[in-house]
Amino acid sequence: MSVTRKRERREIEKIARERMEYLMRLADDVFLRDRERAQRYVEICRRLGMRSRVRIPRAWRWRICRGCKAFLWPGVNCRVRLRVRRQSHIVVTCFNCGHHMRYNI
């Protein structure tokens, strides 16, 4: 890959990350007022990431259900629990689909 192509690719990735961050912040701001709109922002963010082959930022990735792709809001449509068996971990349970997601601490 030439230097200019690498530079173009980095620029595309940078723009995609900025837009994804913006969309996830919008989803976070609007969720309690309009859940459908927040879900739409998440869908656009996911599609943008797939198209540009950029991952959703880690800070936001845990806010999307891996089962039904719903935007998660702790206490509203998901449950968050700390577990200390074996290794300490966090368990997030989606109320929409019942999927359990486990994150090591």
Question: How are the secondary structure elements laid out?
Answer:
Blueprint: H1 3-30, H2 35-52, H3 58-61, E1 78-83, E2 89-94, E3 100-104
Antiparallel strand pairs: 1-2, 2-3
Main sheet characteristics: 3 strands, antiparallel
Which parts are unreliable, with pLDDT below 50 for 5 consecutive residues or more? none
Radius of gyration: 16 Å
The N- to C-terminal Cα distance equals 38 Å
Query: What structural class do you assign from the helix and strand content?
Result: alpha+beta
Q: H/E series, N to C?
A: HHHEEE
Outline the structure in words.
The structure is a single chain. The protein has 3 helices and 3 strands. It folds into 2 domains: 1-60, Immunoglobulin FC, subunit C (Single alpha-helices involved in coiled-coils or other helix-helix interfaces, Up-down Bundle), CATH 1.20.5; 62-105, no CATH class. The protein is an alpha+beta fold. It has helices at residues 3-30, 35-52, 58-61; strands at residues 78-83, 89-94, 100-104.
